[in-house]
Amino acid sequence: MDGNSGFQNPGAKVDGAKHIWPDDDTLIPDWIYTDRSIYDLELEKIFLGRHWNYVGLDCEVPEPGNYFRSYVGPLPVVVTRDMDGEVHVFENRCAHRGVEFCREYRGSADSFICPYHNWTYSLKGDLTAVPFRRGVKGKGGMPSDFDMAERGLRKFHVATRGGVIFATACDDMESIEDYLGPTICEEFDATFDGSEMKLLGVHRNILPSNWKLYQENLKDPYHATLLHTYLTTFGLFVSSNESSVPTDALGRHGGLLSRRSEGRPDVSAEDQENMQAFKKTMELNDPRVLQFFRECDSKWSGSVLTIFPTLTALRQTNILNTRLLVPRGPDEFMMIWTVFGRADDDEEMTRHRLRQNNIFGPAGFLGIEDNEALKFLQDGIRKSLPRDGLALLGDDDEPVDTIITERAIRGMYRYYRNVMGL
Amino acid sequence: MASVMDRTTNALRDARLEIEEFNYAYADTLDRFDVDGWVEYFTEDAFYHVIARDNAESGLPLGLIYCEGRAMMKDRAYALLNTEMFAPRYLHLSITNTRALAIEGDEIHATANYTLIETLVEEPSRVQQVGKYRDIFQRSGDGLLLKERIATYDSVMIDNCLVFPV
Q1: Cβ(A188)–Cβ(A303) under 8 Å?
Q2: Chain B closest CA to A242's CA: distance in Å?
């Protein structure tokens, strides 16, 4: 795409006197999760700013003419593959009166026609037809200087890496590789290794919580063994597993990487005491759910990546998914979970992934708990007298294998403050 | 000929009544959070699948819940009752519009509509899930067991999370 993407600065204003960030990196002010002016500023500084926004996967538009609904931040977009095979991302808002014209989750089309006045757009988002352009009987119609080329849909710049599609409104954006930085890019490439993906399905849920709390949650290894008893009970992750919590140089992206021990988890008596709900004798009736077929070179059997602003990418044993966080106001976001396998999976491997996916998703053993905890968290922040949240654990210069830490949360908010000017 | 048709109609009507009784008991078991008891409604090798309607209609196999066999259901029941953290709630599962479609040997193919209404502390009741069962019942002794229950839900946008099976 050439030139300016046409997204103007919405000019959000934040009341600087009301919003003073505490002069202490371990404190996070409540108002970033609840205040509408902060939310509006995020649109400008983050989602339309110098960031790559994840919008979907190549395997969701496998054929020319395929499309699906997605979002850049809170903004509805359509992701298409044109007849030449190129992927496009443009706003789902007719350039005429603003109708959100694409209403299907996904499909195949050779053009998009706004149902209100039949303005017609190509798979690239260009305006190709306007009815009654010359009016009727020489009366009415478009002004003589109406230029179709100027009236297309606003388009985002698009880049893909390893089958993952990103969009940005920034006209001079760096490459995905540079955006991720070397450490996170290496882990990203381990999950998105360039082999062809096969879409298994999509989960959707609404979470009554601020979108940033989800990124915090996946930058927080402290909660993993405490909230998620399933992990420890069945040995998927325990605090003694070899782990790493890397971040990029700016602190905006992060990873929770872990290597599952062979056999039953080795949990010390002291650790068990700290984890109230640890049940050491549990074996699954159907152990197939936790079987691990090694399928990439990475030493990590579990990899959760948080890619700023709204992507999380998961590779846990043989579960592969992305989660897109779609803000819907300060107190709510939508999650779109896109679950995939590999194109060369045989039928049994596909069934294995489907069985294993019981662990995640909005009815998964971990998904239920994360979604409930974040709802409780937003309830507390939203309803009670404001107070700073604490992110005290660990040190900013600690080794990356420290897991009882909130270092990655502090790192994200240093970046956030900087980009938001707070 | 007419008498054969009458016999088929009568057999399907009897099957529907039997399935209605089955589904009422099934719903009551889940309303009481008795997920161990829920497992008992299935055959040992049963397939239980809760799938979003958009996935089903796009030929995408991902399940919100995907259980191959009673062992996987038992593991889910154990996890829900012993490892899971979730807000307290009341469940109200209604199963309606039951239809017995065909009887093949000791199997009955049937459908029904279902609605799960959840009520959380200090929150108004809300529809958590609305969908359709596509079932295969197997005759077992005096009663029926589910050999397959595919619950396809219209409520694709899940309100936070689905804790208990439907």
Answers
A1: no
A2: 23
Q: What is the pLDDT of residue A381?
A: 96
Contact B52 A202 (CB under 8 A): yes
3-state secondary structure of B28: helix
Say if residues A211 and A327 touch (Cβ distance below 8 Å). yes
Per-residue DSSP letters for A28-87? E-GGGGT-HHHHHHHIIIIISSS-PEEEEEGGGS-STTEEEEEEETTEEEEEEE-TTS-E
Partner-chain contact A205 B82, CB within 8 Å: no
Measured CA distances, A78 to A51, A60, A407 (Å) = 19, 12, 36
- In this structure, which amino acid lies at residue B76? R
The answer to whether residue A1 scores a pLDDT higher than 80 is no
Find which of B48, B66, B120, B153 to mutate to test the A interface (most A CBs within 10 Å of its CB).
B66
Global pTM?
A: 0.94
Asked if residues B36 and B44 have their Cβ atoms less than 8 Å apart, the reply is no
Helices vs strands, H then E, count in chain A: 10, 19
Could you give the CA distance from residue A354 to residue A365 in angstroms, rounded to a whole number? 14
Assess contact for B73 and B48: CB atoms under 8 A.
yes
pLDDT tens, position by position, A218-242: 999 999 889 998 888 877 777 778 9
Interface ipTM above 0.85? yes
